[in-house]
Amino acid sequence: MTLRTPVKSVLLGAALLGLAACASTPPDQGPNKLAATETQQWMDRIKVDPAPDEILLKPHASGLSANQSAALEALVSRWLAAEARELVVTAPNTAGAMAIEIRDRLAGLGAGARVRVVGVDPASAEEGAIRVGFVRYEARPIKCGQRWENLAATRDNTVYDNFGCAMAANIAAQVANPEDLMRPRDMTPADTGRRDTVLGKYRRGEVTSSAKDEQASGAVSKAIQ
């Protein structure tokens, strides 16, 4: 008893010290809870490259020709399909009148106020032409299956090297607008008209909810089946 008691005391003391050490470990010494998962790490490997879509228009004293007008219409169709941010008209300073006509034409085709006109020195313009275009984005394809190991070896409880690659490759191939992988879209403006209506009713002490629809009453139909 006299020999075993000190041993037990030492073991008990070591255990208590270990527990105290675990309890006193700073939180930043543990696992990084903000680290990306294996799937997110594959998503971070998707590379998105800019791919400008531009056309060159020759200035005419009489304005846009029929072919130029058709080319602008096709450009706006591609711009809408790509969900790009803005259309840029880069024109020499000597072709300002035609640049304004191009801007109005683009606005009439659906671009609205998302057209920006940039003036440049005529000497730097390519053949004195007016450049009209936008920047769309393309996602590079991801190659999976470059390295495989024994998928049955799960003794370490870790994922295999290609885990999450197929999902990221499918997203890169199918995403409608690869720019969404780079940054979130701009927030649409608030509906100020509806906000003023609700606040006006609130200040007057009126009900701010929408009017009740009789078809949404939930009454059981009495129709004969």
TrEMBL record:
<feature type="region of interest" description="Disordered">
    <location>
        <begin position="181"/>
        <end position="225"/>
    </location>
</feature>
<dbReference type="Pfam" id="PF09476">
    <property type="entry name" value="Pilus_CpaD"/>
</dbReference>
<dbReference type="InterPro" id="IPR013361">
    <property type="entry name" value="Pilus_CpaD"/>
</dbReference>
<feature type="compositionally biased region" description="Basic and acidic residues">
    <location>
        <begin position="181"/>
        <end position="215"/>
    </location>
</feature>
<keyword id="KW-0732">Signal</keyword>
<feature type="signal peptide">
    <location>
        <begin position="1"/>
        <end position="23"/>
    </location>
</feature>
<protein>
    <submittedName>
        <fullName>Pilus assembly protein CpaD</fullName>
    </submittedName>
</protein>
<dbReference type="InterPro" id="IPR019027">
    <property type="entry name" value="Pilus_biogenesis_CpaD-related"/>
</dbReference>
